[in-house]
């Protein structure tokens, strides 16, 4: 794919949708990416199959609670330093930059990082959505270490972490991120082109861009949600999808705890009849129930959008009285394997319920 | 000086005294050092004036709350890894190992580290006592950075910290240490022989050994506290000293909070007459008051010992009913400069009282 500066608005909207409520608001990320592109030029986007097996690939992301991330922003030097420290520790110079998650702000950060570094960007990520913790990516599921991992704050304090497993790396990074004020830049999962080809979720930059584009085109036609669903049905990963619920937000419980935005929201029918929907979240929406019945569960995607404009709604922008549609969307096949479910299935979030696919839960 | 394996018991006792209640119990450290010396041999001890200006000096220490440190122990591999990671990051191989604090467990750790690394040990440290925080050393006072700083846990997870100032380094190290379970090995303040000569507190291994030796010899004569005081009066740093109080412990408040053992204790006269003594601590004893009157204040040393045997008493071994003598001892001159008082004077511990020397407070 070729990315234009005029694509960034659609890409940001699509990334917000795939953020499933989390991943931070891409708006600031988009502004920062636009500024970086104006200064350094748009990075070339390379398809995963075109990356040489022995190429060195670094990721770039922000780590923190979205409620804090929107208060602060990457200043550029911190991104450069995160890559530099990882390069110093590994003794390797990156050939490519890749997103670790396509959902939310972290779709934009790698564009910014690649533009500043003058490196191409890979059209893939490690989840095809957003997740709250560092170990929750396909690369970890299939044995790639997140370490050495570098983490940098806006004052350019930096930390390199080397842990034995990805969960220990997550715990240490989270402790450092909290101390750093929950607005940090990280570069983790240094890997090779071969790893990206084997374990990445491919073409997700394209998918995010097309999702954002179809929402915009649907608005022009007056049916953004239907236009979006029609597009999703043509995709490789997101083709099982439906409107789970149409209603208004009647209750939100949200707190920033241990570095995460944790809580739940209730949605009632517009006409007041029928069962309510309850959605639980930890940065991202995790499980949606209609009455007592689970209708979508992680790692499948639960996406809230404005019921008129299909604008994606993040957990931090959830408001009482909002009119929303709740969409359920299938995750990529690699995200639903037993190995993957061990790492980011319902149990990983303390939910005592087995994963069942959205197509089975909703007989679609 | 030349250190013998038979000296370690005296050294540990003297280091516990200079720990001023903190620094961890040197007992486990002594056992570990003895085992390392049996396996690797006793390291050569070098006087600071004999270290070449351009020599590379690394420190080795445990970081955590003493109440936790005594539960766990350095396994050797973690010490080696702390030095190795620092070496990798700095690109320098250490020529010497040095204690960062002589008080408590951290007098022994560098012996262990030096024995394992086959390197000589410098007869100096950065405080001539113990302190709870990484920035509270003379090296920081005079502009040496604690970074890069390496920190390792017993599972051999490792972290490298590079912060702009020593307090930020402390905050990040503490956050990591808490996540690591408060039993960590660190190597901080990589420096040169020139730095050690200019800013170190010199000959403190000798001083700790002699303090421990005089307590033991005093016991044989039946007056360990007096023998100890007589020795201290002959030393360069600790020559202003006295028994501040003789009594029994009647109250202890102690909690492990934010990675520190924080609290206070009350001591009443043995005969019940006269004002009580109150001592406040954060890992180390910070201020001793007789009634309302301050009699010793940090960075001067407050040392509790058993009133019969002069065995040093740490904050974690304080017990209700203990019969103790409280000794006040002058700190090294470099520890009392205005620059030093900015970093580890009373205000650094939230004590709203200016530093006054023990000799002025007690007219000695």
Short structural description:
The structure is a homodimer of 364-residue chains. The first copy, chain A, has 364 residues and is an alpha+beta fold. Chain A is built from twelve helices and 18 strands.
How is this fold's topology laid out?
2 copies of one chain form a homodimer.
Chain A: H1 8-18, H2 26-40, E1 45-46, E2 56-59, E3 61-63, H3 66-69, H4 77-90, E4 96-98, H5 109-117, E5 121-122, E6 124-125, H6 138-141, E7 149-152, E8 158-162, H7 166-179, E9 184-187, E10 191-192, H8 193-199, E11 201-202, H9 204-221, H10 224-232, E12 241-257, E13 260-269, E14 277-282, E15 284-290, E16 293-297, E17 301-306, E18 323-329, H11 338-344, H12 358-361
Parallel strand pairs in A: 1-5, 2-4
Antiparallel strand pairs in A: 2-10, 3-9, 6-11, 7-8, 7-9, 12-13, 12-18, 13-14, 14-15, 15-16, 17-18
Integer average pLDDT of chain A: 94
> Which pair has the most extensive contact?
A-B, 22 and 22 residues
Strand content of chain A: 25-35%
Task: Provide the CATH architecture of the largest domain in chain A.
Answer: 3-Layer(aba) Sandwich
Helical percentage of chain A: 25-40%
Name of the top-level CATH class of the largest domain in chain A = Alpha Beta
Total separate domains of chain A: 2
Gap from first CA to last CA of chain A: 31 Å
Total strands of chain A: 18
Overall 3D form of chain A: globular
- Give the name of the CATH superfamily of the largest domain in chain A: CV3147-like domain
Q: How is the quaternary structure best described?
A: homodimer
**SSE arrangement of chain A, N to C:** HHEEEHHEHEEHEEHEEHEHHEEEEEEEHH
Strand order of the largest sheet of chain A: 16-15-14-13-12-18-17
Radius of gyration of chain A from the CA trace? Answer: 19 Å
Report the major sheet of chain A.
Answer: 7 strands, antiparallel
Query: Which consecutive residue ranges of chain A, at least 5 long each, have pLDDT under 50?
Result: none
What is the structural class of chain A?
Answer: alpha+beta
Reported by name, the CATH topology of the largest domain in chain A is CV3147-like fold
User: What count of helical segments of chain A does DSSP give?
Assistant: 12
């Amino acid at each position: 794919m070729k990315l234009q500066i005029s694509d960034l608005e659609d890409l940001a909207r699509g990334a917000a949708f795939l953020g499933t409520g989390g991943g931070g608001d891409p708006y600031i990320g988009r502004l920062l990416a636009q500024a970086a592109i104006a200064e350094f030029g748009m990075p070339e986007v390379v398809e995963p199959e075109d990356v040489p097996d022995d190429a060195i690939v670094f990721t770039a992301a922000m780590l923190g609670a979205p409620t804090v991330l929107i208060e602060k922003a990457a200043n550029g030097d911190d991104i450069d330093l995160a890559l530099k420290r990882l390069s110093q520790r590994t003794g390797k110079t990156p050939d490519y930059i890749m997103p670790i998650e396509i959902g939310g702000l972290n779709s934009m950060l790698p564009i910014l990082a690649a533009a500043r570094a003058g490196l191409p960007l890979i059209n893939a990520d490690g989840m095809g959505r957003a997740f709250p913790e560092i170990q929750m990516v396909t690369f970890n599921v299939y044995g790639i270490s997140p370490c050495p991992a570098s983490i940098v704050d806006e004052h350019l304090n930096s930390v390199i972490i080397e842990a034995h497993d990805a969960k220990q790396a997550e715990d240490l990074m989270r402790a450092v991120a909290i101390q750093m004020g929950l607005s940090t830049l990280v570069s983790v999962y240094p890997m090779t082109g071969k790893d990206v080809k084997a374990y990445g979720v491919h073409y997700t930059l394209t998918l995010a861009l097309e999702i954002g584009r179809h929402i915009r085109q649907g608005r022009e036609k007056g049916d953004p949600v239907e236009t979006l669903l029609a597009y999703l049905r043509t995709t490789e990963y997101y083709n099982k999808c439906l409107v789970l619920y149409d209603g208004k937000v009647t209750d939100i419980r949200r707190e920033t705890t241990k570095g995460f935005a944790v809580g739940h929201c209730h949605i009632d029918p517009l006409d007041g009849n029928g069962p309510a929907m309850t959605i639980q979240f930890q940065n991202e929406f995790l499980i949606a129930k209609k009455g007592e019945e689970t209708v979508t569960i992680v790692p499948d995607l639960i996406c809230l959008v404005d019921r008129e404009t299909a604008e994606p709604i993040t957990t931090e922008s959830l408001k009482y009285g909002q009119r929303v549609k709740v969409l359920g969307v299938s995750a990529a096949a690699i995200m639903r394997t037993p190995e993957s479910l061990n790492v980011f299935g319902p149990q990983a979030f303390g939910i005592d319920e087995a994963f069942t696919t959205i197509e089975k839960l909703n007989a679609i």
